[in-house]
Design goal:
The chain has 438 residues and is of the alpha+beta class. It is 18% helix and 29% strand. It is globular and about 80 Å long.
Length: 438
């Protein structure tokens, strides 16, 4: 890979992949270490899912090289802005159409009429039959709703309310405008399906980024860059198939659907190709823990992040420093009063209170929630150089595990001694994130 572009303080990305991420995408923009990346992020999930030529379930920004980032480093991504552009979106639980794909409806799509793989398509009218093969005219999307809804947002993007059939149809007629799709986006807007169950339901909005990080070291569908979705690549018959060992080796776990990856959070990610290749996509207006329907409120969003290279920090998976309010109560930094109570209690029993601790979330992904939790525990133990038993004990009495996404993406929160964080190179970032004194 040869990049000759001069490094910039700010890189603005208006180019998107069609569901693929990896080393084959030539990174033609370079951002300085400490610089910023801005993009208009198109919706993930449903729009790309019903666009047959896409090889993954998202439409993410073209990857950007970070100056000085090498394999074996890490990159701290500080999320400075996630602003909702869309006026409304559609989502819901899904069913698949067996004739429109091979092994995986997110990846190896085909036309049921002429058999063309990853066919070009056009829209005819609205509704679930609207996506048509450009070659033979057959309806060719791989997905439809089991039960779906359309949700409109208020002007300040504070709340949303689900609408009825009349409004959903109006939105479908001007779907690209309502979705606020950037001109360069190639997806079919999911609003054309006009789903309209549960009208009148009120929801709070708090936007976040569902898929963000560095590119994997082997090409893969963007939605499958994680241990749970990625497991569908193992032994598949299509060209993006991997072995289990390859998935572990190459993935960077960018697709987390973790609602704590929002403005103010810091996501620290591994570098598996020189330059890192920062990409951004799959933003959502809101989500409850677990994303129980497997999909949530896909949006177009204005996103800005700051990137800082952390040299010689080999990560097994992402580490998250959430906004303080998003931390579990039991794992928040101790107040001065709590520390003093602890000091007196330790003194009573003749032990010395340990030094200052600070919260860190270790991300784990795997085919199931239990396996994802084990994955996060392994990451924590490996990075900190302690036993898995100690990780389990610390997380039980002063931490915990939260479900980002079913079937297998978790956040393992742990209060870690600052001395240990200093030793592995995270102490400064953690102090800054939680305003901790020495």
């Amino acid at each position: 890979m040869h990049v000759t572009t001069e490094a910039k303080d700010i890189v603005e990305v208006r180019r998107y992949t069609a569901g693929l991420i990896g080393p084959s995408l030539e990174m033609d923009e370079v951002v300085k270490d400490g610089g910023r990346i801005k993009t208009i992020s198109p919706p993930g999930c449903w729009g790309p899912m019903i666009t047959p030529k896409f090889v993954g379930g998202h439409e993410v920004s073209w990857p950007v090289t970070v100056e000085g980032a090498k394999v074996g480093d890490a990159i701290a991504i500080t999320i400075e802005q996630v602003s909702v552009r869309s006026l409304a979106t559609s989502s819901g639980t899904m069913i698949t159409k067996a004739a429109a794909f091979g092994d995986d409806p997110f990846v190896d799509k085909k036309c049921p009429g002429c058999g063309t793989l990853w066919p070009e398509s056009r829209l005819e009218g609205t509704g679930k039959q609207a996506v048509r093969c450009a070659k033979c005219g057959a309806e060719c999307s791989a997905f439809e709703f089991e039960e779906g809804y359309t949700i409109a947002f208020d002007d300040d993007r504070v709340v949303g309310v689900t609408v009825d059939q009349r409004v959903a149809h109006d939105f479908a007629l001007r779907a690209r405008e309502v979705a606020a799709l950037p001109a360069e986006s190639e997806q079919h807007p999911i609003l054309i399906y006009e789903p309209h169950t549960i009208p009148g339901t009120l929801a709070r909005l708090r936007p976040f980024i569902g898929n963000i990080g560095t590119i994997p070291s082997k090409d893969m569908p963007d939605s499958h860059n994680a241990g749970d979705f990625g497991s569908f690549l193992i032994g598949a018959s299509h060209k993006y198939a991997m072995t289990e060992q390859e998935l572990v080796e190459h993935r960077t776990d960018g697709h987390l659907d973790c609602d704590a990856v929002r403005e103010g959070a810091v996501l620290i990610v591994p570098v598996k190709v020189d330059g890192g290749g920062i990409y951004i996509g799959d933003s959502h207006a809101n989500q409850g823990d677990g994303e129980l329907s497997l999909h949530t409120t896909d949006i177009t969003a204005d996103v800005q992040v700051k990137v800082d290279v952390l040299k010689d920090m080999s990560l097994a998976g992402p580490v998250l420093l959430p906004v303080a309010d998003d931390l579990p109560w039991i794992a928040r930094p101790f107040s001065a009063e709590e520390r003093e109570r602890g000091r007196k209690l330790a003194e009573r029993y003749g032990v010395r209170l340990s030094g200052t601790v600070a919260p860190v979330q270790f991300i784990g992904t795997a085919a199931t929630i239990n396996e994802a939790t084990d994955n996060a525990i392994e990451h924590a133990a490996s990075m900190l150089g302690i036993s898995q038993a100690q990780v389990r004990n610390r997380c039980t009495i002063s931490g915990g595990v939260e479900i980002a996404r079913l079937p297998g993406a978790v956040q393992l929160t742990m209060l870690v001694p600052l001395d240990d964080l200093d030793r592995v190179g995270l102490g400064g970032l953690v102090r800054q994130q939680y305003a901790l004194a020495e």
